[in-house]
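Entry for the shared binder. Reason: the reviewer on the internal report wants the predicted structure included alongside the sequence.
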Amino acid sequence: MPYSDPKFPVVNPNPSVDDCLSALRFRDWAVLGGISAGAWSYGYIMGRPARMATASTAFAIGITFAGFVVLQDTRARLLGYKENAKEVTSIGMHAIQPNLRLKASQQDPRFPTATGMASESTKPKLDWTRHD
């Protein structure tokens, strides 16, 4: 994931695989099916001596790749790095949102500055009185 601040509202700051799978869109299912079918077709066309074995292997590789692509896209939507209007309406926004205002020193988007999304509950301050 990028180190810059998210451009959209954060739905879940720490999504699990189950959270990502429950937030799949129709486009994600189409990508999953399309990449898998394309990989199987490629394996069938190119696997001359053993077409079905090559096609099945290519399908397994294709569905693994498609799963990674879909999970990465869904995770980016839940974290607020991609457009997530459907997730905000269906799941809701997280209680702690990052400060999305640009600082005066941050005029160039090539040099992002973190605005501090970590709260006290996730990153407590250090207690310097106890050293043991």
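Summary line for the report: Residues 25-90 form one domain.
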